Amino acid sequence: MALAELRRPMIERIWWGLLVVAVLGTPVSLSRLATTGWLPAYTVHVVLTVAIAVTCWQLSRFSYKVLVAWLVLVFWAVGIGGLISLGPLGAGVWWMSVSALLISVLVSLRAAFISLVLIALVLVATGYLFVSGSVTVDFDANQYILQVRTWAVLIIGATLLPMIVFLALADYQHTLARLLTRVEKQSQLIEQKNQELALANDAMQDFTSIVSHDLKEPLRGIRSFAALLKEAPDDITAEQSQALLTQIHDKADALSTMLDELFQVSRLENGSIQREPVDVEHLVAKLGVRLRALLDERGAELSCADGMPLLVADRVRASEVFYNLIVNGIKYNQSSPPQVHVDYETRDGKVYYTVTDNGIGIAASQQARIFQIFRRAHHGDAYGEGSGVGLALARKIIDLHGGDIQLESHPGQGSVFRVHFGAAA
Ligand code: ADP
Question: Which of 53, 126, 238, 328 is least surrounded, with the fewest CB atoms within 10 Å of its CB?
């Protein structure tokens, strides 16, 4: 919000306030004009009231600068008018002083300082005019002071004018406070984003170091087997060289699979999601069909609770998450029969879909690690093939949804994976 935008409501309020003061004082000035006819301040007052009314009527047409300049002019017209007509008896000095105060808030302190110097010069000049006799006030001050109308003008001017100025300042203060709250909120948001960024950076570094480390492993194998073949071709038998070539081939395959999977995960990094309503019971039933062979082979059971709440998420990706969790529940399982159950629960007002198995469970020390790419809690193919990508992929998908994935597991007691797919906008 620009400063002028911030100050605009304040100056508009001052203009309306000024109109109130001018209108309230007009009858007094008019009657004074009719009965005495000699105080120019009253003519100035009536003319200014009309000008102020026109300005207020057309307020939105004027730029901020024009409104400020015009306001200061009005204050000075009243101030100088009052000074010349009544000398130190009038409220002219007040008006000019208030104008300096307003300039300090509406424009700048420097401009206010210049106006204070001008006020001092005007006062010196007026004082000189009166003292030298160039200007005289030909009225009886006592009589003037005793008049009710004098007091009416004074009271209206002395109470309403500061009130309007204070109201406008309060308004300004209030806007500043609101602005400050907004700035505070924004800085909190920036701080939060910075933290998220730092976390993302850390995760990225973890990811890169894991990837470079893990991809090197099959490469190292390929290089050393190839070196063996190259350096000692006479010493090794045809059988041995065949075995080495098979090893090289397998390592190259492994490398290629890792690269494919890596590509899958990194592609998600900048991907966008398209949310749509997903019937989870239906989705699990479809996954049951897709996993028929594995379920039959392991004699496993897959079930889903009735009345699952509608999921609003990227259908294909959500299916990938459930697929990986269900496959793991069947694979890492030695119970008979292995069972995987899909259900839901509400935590902190958020719906979490749960995938529970009666499998081998996961040690606490492994629980964070297994969500990293290529990280497995089990060596080799003890529980069937795997590459350590499924959970990393699931977590990336959940992150993309702005959601949350949690794991609760104890070795030998099965596992529960809870997933929340973020709030649909
Ligand atoms: P993968 O299954 O291909 O190895 P994942 O990323 O899906 O890769 O899983 C990483 C590791 O986490 C697995 O190797 C396994 O050790 C462990 N794991 C995952 N899900 C379960 C589960 N439901 N029960 C026991 N261990 C699990």
Answer: 238
Secondary structure element (H or E) that encloses residue 354, with its range: strand 350-357
For ligand 1, the distance from its centroid to the CA atom of residue 219, given in whole angstroms, is 24
The Cα-based distances of 293 to 282, 287, 289, 297, 404 in angstroms read 19, 11, 9, 6, 31
Q: Which residues of 375-394 are buried (b: 16+ CB within 10 A; e: fewer)?
A: bbbbeeeebeebebbbbbbb
Which token pair is 372?
């990293």
Burial class of residue 236, CB neighbours in 10 A (0-12, 13-18, 19+): middle
Query: From ligand 1's centre to the CA of 350, what distance in Å?
Result: 26
The pick from 356, 370, 413, 419 for probing ligand 1's pocket by mutation, whose C-beta has the most ligand atoms within 8 angstroms, reads 370
Report the pocket of ligand 1 as residue ranges, CB < 6 Å. Answer: 324, 328-329, 332, 357, 359-360, 362, 370, 376-378, 386-392, 415
| CA 317 to ligand 1 center in whole angstroms | 18
Of the candidates 405, 400, 401, 321, the residue with the CA atom closest to the CA atom of residue 368: 405
Out of 372, 376, 416, give the residue to mutate to test ligand 1, the one with the largest number of ligand atoms within 8 Å of its CB: 376
pTM (predicted TM-score): 0.54
Q: For residue 192, report the distance from its CA to the centre of ligand 1, in Å.
A: 32
- Whether residue 337 is preceded by a cis peptide bond, meaning omega within 30 degrees of 0, is yes
What distance in angstroms lies between residue 329's CA and the mean position of ligand 1's atoms?
8
Name the residue among 258, 265, 289 with its Cα closest to residue 396. Answer: 265
Ligand 1 geometric centre to CA of 363 (Å): 12
| Residue 269 CB coordination number (10 Å) | 12
Protein residue with its CA nearest to atom 21 in ligand 1: 328
Q: Which amino acid makes up residue 175?
A: T
- Tokens 């850390």 correspond to 202
